Automatic annotation (TrEMBL), chains A, B:
UniProt cross-references to HAMAP family, sorted A to Z: LeuB_type1 (MF_01033)
Binding site for NAD(+): 74-87, 279-291
Protein's UniProt keywords contain Metal-binding: yes
Known role: Catalyzes the oxidation of 3-carboxy-2-hydroxy-4-methylpentanoate (3-isopropylmalate) to 3-carboxy-4-methyl-2-oxopentanoate. The product decarboxylates to 4-methyl-2 oxopentanoate.
GO cellular component: cytosol
Stated name of the protein: 3-isopropylmalate dehydrogenase
GO biological process: L-leucine biosynthetic process
Pfam families named among the record's database cross-references: Iso_dh
Chemical reaction(s) catalysed: (2R,3S)-3-isopropylmalate + NAD(+) = 4-methyl-2-oxopentanoate + CO2 + NADH
Cofactor: Mg(2+); Mn(2+)
Compartments, as annotated in UniProt: Cytoplasm
Name of the gene: leuB
Binding, Mg(2+): D221, D245, D249
Length: 350, 350
């Protein structure tokens, strides 16, 4: 299995190194061979090649079985008038590989239960699987500007096609069948034309192909509320790119530990891309204190979704639960006088 | 002072009636004259005139000193293929009256402290004033559709001009000066062209006109997180229409009582529009159990912002605090065996 590593910026290299170590342990324990190759993306790619996603990176990704990404971005490349930025690399690789579905599981860790900012009686039982559409919507709409002085105007078009809506709704509905058989679609159909198409097409898909799945729709503003006051009521949630960006980040606070949450970006075929949902954390980069668990859990998702190695994925997940049960905590998780372990120590323990 | 009442749909008429009663009490106590007139908006206007915002309503609003709105919408008018919908009335009145700034204070009520879904140590001290841009952005962008079959595509353009950004940032920055002198601007400048213009123009305004105000920028997805895990860190927050819709609704959960939150929509001049932030709650409409306090607090905002009657506004606000201290609770607020009072009883008590 050839695996492309894209460490990226900030803490990216540190956390990817630990995840690689875990994958190597899996390989030797279960008798697999993983061939790793490392490539550039993001700010470091801009610095070294002028392009946040060099062509050779894309080629390597296309040829791989799966891709493990650290994080991209940082203040160094934040100049709003810069020609290109690290995030452009991330957006382009999603598009180039057709990774239209971003899966983000939001689940509480029993060991970290008191870390949630929400009261226990509200957050207990939360277990949501988000499907965020990742290669359409306003992110990839036509953009530009016109006018001068006070009339200077910038625009970007929010766009969805029936095809784009169908395939993500189908993927989410199929996942719902494997879980509690409930799907919630989130839109802003009372205001936005693409949301009205989304709502119509989603309803058709559900009626025709998934009549057995319990299905409802919620407006994005209402969903932003529900995630705070009744998060345990949701199972699988499907939504567009921008709404998914905001809602999954909101939801990521519920477990109280951003450092624990992985994500997977999948296409119809070809390699999937796996990454922690947290960013490049430039403030702690190079200090060796980052939490590698989200990246390690992303590696587990990779084994499951791209390599069909379910037992191996579960082995990683229970190893993570195990080190937490043993009391190991990186700085972001350490509470009440517990001494924090380093990124490397945490990776080694897993 | 001529005041237009727009009760609208669902619980709208019930809550507006109570707010009117409170305004009448203010008039007689402080020796003012308020001339009320009631007009149609939303679903009821569609039913009776075919138009969610009849011309006579717009005219009456233009001639008024201020406008008090209940709520619009309901399942009756929710058909996604309907020609028009109640929300269209709301969007149009904002636009027609140039109400470009939506002010939403989010503040905990001591009396309801344990109602928050957030843990007390996180939510304590939260006191945010949102400025949501209300007449621009994707809400009012060009929209349409094209293509057929799987290629059928719908779009709507997210647009901001320098003029639109300047005036809302100025209003928010001026408000920050009257509070803790801190302003946070929220955008998605790493992806969206209109957000990049927003970020550039906001920085210019702040540098040139408000160098004394502490200013920072946060991405919308990060802000969705911060509102949950460190809401007390923010003072005044300014953002675009769609982001404001989502973030203010998210933030509205923090006090744990949607029924307590008012909002004001203001233009450069002319009448302001005041309303509760909650919706028309069709499930409890007509039962006499709705909470009128948000609408009553909206009436207080109206006295302050449109009629410059600060003492009178404070009188309403302390009356609301008083009835809460007396233990009165409508059904939405009643906890642990407290008997709920009716909408009318709550209004009368205030
Ligand atoms: C970095 C940025 C472009 C990206 C996004 O908004 O998609 C990030 O926030 C994410 O959610 O993966
Ligand atoms: C009803 C709807 C059009 C409206 C909006 O999204 O602006 C509402 O959600 C609000 O926030 O006032």
């Amino acid at each position: 299995h050839s695996i492309v590593l894209l460490p990226g910026d900030g803490i990216g290299p540190e956390i990817v190194t630990q995840a690689r170590g875990v994958l190597e342990a899996v390989a030797s324990r279960f008798g697999h061979e993983f061939a790793f190759s490392t490539h550039r993306i993001g700010g470091i790619a801009i610095d070294e090649t002028g392009d946040p996603l060099p062509a050779e990176t894309v080629e390597a990704c296309r040829a791989a079985a799966a891709i493990l990404l650290g994080a991209v971005g940082g203040p160094k490349w934040d100049d709003p008038s810069a020609k290109t930025r690290p995030e452009a690399g991330l957006l382009r690789i999603r598009k180039e590989l057709g990774l239209f579905a971003n899966l983000r599981p939001i689940k509480l860790f029993d060991e970290l239960a008191d870390a949630s900012p929400l009261r226990a009686e509200i957050v207990t039982g939360t277990d949501i699987l988000f499907f965020r559409e990742l290669t359409g919507g306003v992110y990839f709409g036509e953009s530009g500007s016109s006018g001068e002085g006070d009339d200077e105007t910038a625009y970007q078009s929010m766009t969805y096609s029936r095809r784009e809506i169908k395939r993500i709704v189908r993927m989410a509905a199929a996942a719902a069948r494997e879980r509690s058989n409930r799907l919630t679609s989130v839109d802003k159909a009372n205001v936005l034309e693409p949301s009205r198409l989304w709502r119509r097409v989603a309803a058709e898909v559900m009626q025709e192909e998934f009549p057995d799945v319990n299905y409802d729709v919620v407006l994005v503003d209402a969903m932003a509320m529900h995630l705070i006051n009744r998060p345990a009521d949701f199972d699988v949630v499907v939504t567009g790119n921008l709404f998914g960006d905001i809602l999954t980040d909101e939801a990521s606070m519920l477990p109280g530990s951003l450092g624990m949450l992985p994500s997977a970006s999948l296409g119809a075929s070809g390699p999937g891309l796996y990454e922690p949902i947290h960013g490049s954390a430039p403030d702690i980069a190079g200090k060796g204190i980052a939490n590698p668990l989200a990246t390690i859990l992303a590696a587990a998702m990779m084994l499951r979704h791209s390599l069909s190695l379910n037992t191996e994925a579960e082995a990683i997940e229970s190893a993570v639960a195990g080190v937490l049960a043993d009391g190991l905590r990186t700085a972001d998780l350490a509470r009440g006088g517990v001494a924090a372990v380093s990124c490397e120590a945490m990776g080694a323990a897993v």
